[in-house]
Amino acid sequence: MAEVENGTGAEKAPAVAFTVLKPWLVVDAPKASDAVQFYKTAFGAEEVSRVMHPKRKAEHELPLVLSAELKLGSAIIVVSDLINDSSAPVKTAATGGVFCLETEDVESAVARAVTAGAAAEGEISEGDGASCSGRVGKVKDPYGNIWLICSPPKKCADVAA
Amino acid sequence: MAEVENGTGAEKAPAVAFTVLKPWLVVDAPKASDAVQFYKTAFGAEEVSRVMHPKRKAEHELPLVLSAELKLGSAIIVVSDLINDSSAPVKTAATGGVFCLETEDVESAVARAVTAGAAAEGEISEGDGASCSGRVGKVKDPYGNIWLICSPPKKCADVAA
């Protein structure tokens, strides 16, 4: 930080290469296990790894999840219990995230998510030419996150007025 | 939905294949352009596409961003202005998302993000054996999202007690 003097300096700073971006869903403890099961059932997510919190707190009935990694589409998402101790990188439950999931079968995907416990929001409709175009359904998961379930985008330069 | 009778039915429903997951960051209008510039400057994100809202609202000084897609690490993130009309798939600004970004050079990445306008939260420290292990820094962007900037995970089965 000593080498840059003001806000415009960042553009001259050496580029930093990022390899991976993982959305991290932090849920109120001890709901992470439930959330992992929900994402498996609702979206067919595959659990890649799970690390439990080493100190099980007496007041918690269930051991807490430090991080569970799930493969979902092209991404890895991380699901954690909110743990209020010094080891926690995040101190508040992060709810209200929005994620776009692409699939060829929007209707089945929405139906499956709703059956697993998500709330459908509105009807499946035609998108608007932006990222989520084609058919678009929307569900809210039990942990506060919104999932837009869309058919893959078609190449279109037009935006309907 | 007619074919399944209760919450456990989803596990028997046909699997739905998702191809892509895109985190979608919805910011208060008209800040999306600023946010895109911030993610470029702070994280070296590359803009892939941008679709503007066809109806520029009189009360807004700037045209609104329907969706801008940015390549960031292994992912595509979408940045949109919050647009309160019937075409909007999301009706509330989504802030408070948490994202893990992996890089070999955590210090430079955090410094660059802070120079670009992110707020550093705490010191860079050693992670805890979970998803964000190795060195971990944390910044909050001007739009309310938290970015954990971590060195790539080493294979470790141990979790320090």
Automatic annotation (TrEMBL), chains A, B:
Domain VOC: 21-152
Annotated InterPro entries: At5g48480-like_C, At5g48480-like_N, Glyas_Bleomycin-R_OHBP_Dase, VOC_core
Name of the molecule in the record: VOC domain-containing protein
